[in-house]
Amino acid sequence: MTVREYKKLEGMKLEFVSGMLEANGGERAIRCSFTFDMTLDFTRFVKMANGYIPGYLEHDINAIRPELDGLAYHVSYNYFADAAGNIGGNEALFRVFGHPDYYLNDWSSGGLEKRYGKPAFQIIDGRLRINARTDFRWEDPKQLIEIADLPIIQFQWALNLMEGHWSSPERPSSDIKAPSTVAVLMYANEDLIEAEGLQMFRGTRYLRGRALDFGPIKPEQILTAQ
Fold it and tell me: Which residues pair with 150 in a beta bridge?
């Protein structure tokens, strides 16, 4: 089995803006809403990406997948397609994967169920702001969820670099193989540590769900694995 390589990218940051915990009685759920700012040093991104995939942003069959655990779930990946060769900064890159239709909005199944909402993105001064929400409930409709049931929520901000492949080097047809992951660039450090009984990359931002109260989530409640 291929081991996915996660690499820290300097200048990549995840900063908490605001949050809210609410009861979602209509779906017997509890809703966590978050706003985060995601920062990317574009020059460093291009340099590191080209080190893994030469001319990464120049080829239409290369692709990218944002990994936003704790905030949203991207269904698949985005080819650069017509944007290839025209991505000169953060705004153009973010627009490749920033449409809400690319994100899942379905309940998981079994035990403590989770549903990500479709995120809303804004580009503000070169940063990508995400407004996200996650609902939690028990699969058993007779079991009502309480704050004490909420899990540890880890927040990821990473970009999966994917290299495209033609069906043949000679390109006898227009068939393209699914792109494959080469590396994942992230804001956290590369070494894994134990925090809250879980393995996390050092520097990962996270939240103790069970320690919350209904109402605003405070900045000091967003912790860092260290």
Answer: none
Q: How many CA atoms lie within 13 A of 47 on its CB side?
A: 8
Q: 45-54, long-range: CB within 8 Å, 24+ apart, which pairs?
A: 45/9, 45/11, 45/12, 45/93, 45/159, 45/185, 48/7, 48/9, 48/185, 49/161, 49/185, 52/161, 52/182, 52/183, 53/161, 53/163, 53/182
Contacts of 226 (CB under 8 A, 6+ apart): 193, 195, 202, 203
Tell me the pTM. 0.92
Per-residue pLDDT of the chain (226 residues; tens, 9 = 90+): 456 899 999 999 999 999 999 999 889 999 999 999 999 999 999 999 999 999 999 999 999 999 999 999 999 999 999 999 999 999 999 999 999 999 999 999 989 999 999 999 999 999 999 999 999 999 999 999 999 999 999 999 999 999 998 666 665 555 767 899 999 999 999 999 999 999 999 999 999 999 999 999 999 999 999 9
